[in-house]
Amino acid sequence: MSAATEDNKRKVTTHRLREMKERGEKISMLTAYDYSMASLIDEAGMDVILVGDSASNVMAGNITTLPMTLDQMIYHGTSVMKAVKRALVVVDMPFGSCSGNPEKSLDAAIRMMKETGADTLKIEGGEEVIQDIKKIINAGIPVMGHLGLMPQSINKYGTYTVRAKEEKEAEKLLRDALLLQEAGCYAIVLEKIPSSLAGELTQQLSIPTIGIGAGPDTDGQVLVMHDMLGINKGFSPKFLRRYADLHGVITQAVRNYISDVKSNDFPSEKESY
Ligand code: KIV
C-alpha cells in the first residue's frame, strides 16, 4: 500500500484540517444524522461529517432549527459516532445551549462530548458567545465556529437571504472571525455570504473556512445531505448542486413495491420459506 493511500485511511483530526489548508487541499464536509448514512458517507471518504441541527428540518420536519434539544442532538450524534471510522465528526450545539452563560454552556458541551463520543462541536455566533466558546475550548473541547447566516437566529433576521452584503455587517463578520480564531476555534463555517468576503476572510485567517453558499474561495465546502442527494424536492437555493435524484429513485422503488404486493407478485416462491 502506498504512503498516500495509508495517509488517506488515517483518522481526520483538527490538526489535519489545518495542514490541508496550508497545502491548498480542499476540505469536504457533509451532514449525517443516523448510523446507516454516516457509514456510507464515511466509507466514501468524506473528511468531515457534521451532525447538524438541520436534523430539525430534514429529520424532524420542523420549519426552523430552534426546536432541537440537547437530548435530540445527543441521540443523532451517538448514532453517527457508532458508524464513523475515518471522518472528523462535529456535532452542532442546539439553540439555547450556548448563549451567554459560559458555565451552563460548558456543562452542555461536556454532556455532548461524553454521551456522543464526538470529536468536536460547532457553535453559531461571534462576539455574543465568545466567552462561552473560550470556556469550552479551555476545557479541551475543539470548537468549529459558524458565521454569516446563522439559522438559530432566524427570528432576529426574519429571512434566509444572503448576509453581510452591507459594509457594516461585513466588518462585524470579519471582527467575529478574528475573535473566534483568537479564542482557539479550529475552523469556521461561513454560510450564505458574498464570495468576495468569504475569499478575503479565508486569506486573512490561518484556520480553515468551510463555506455553504459562500463561493469557491473557502478552504472547504459543506452541504446538507438530504439537499445534495435530492431527497428534498422543495428546497433549491442557487448555491445547491444536486448529485442525485433520490426523491425520484425512492418514490419509484416504493411504487414498484406497492404494485408487486397488490398484484401478489411479491413474495415469489424463491422469496418464501
Ligand atoms: O445544521 C447544519 O446542517 C449546518 C450546515 C448548514 C452548515 O449548520
UniProtKB/TrEMBL annotation:
Mg(2+) binds at D53, D92, E124. Pfam families: Pantoate_transf. One of its GO terms (molecular function) is magnesium ion binding. The keyword Magnesium applies. It catalyses: (6R)-5,10-methylene-5,6,7,8-tetrahydrofolate + 3-methyl-2-oxobutanoate + H2O = 2-dehydropantoate + (6S)-5,6,7,8-tetrahydrofolate. Belongs to the PanB family. This is 3-methyl-2-oxobutanoate hydroxymethyltransferase. It comes from Breznakibacter xylanolyticus. The gene is panB.
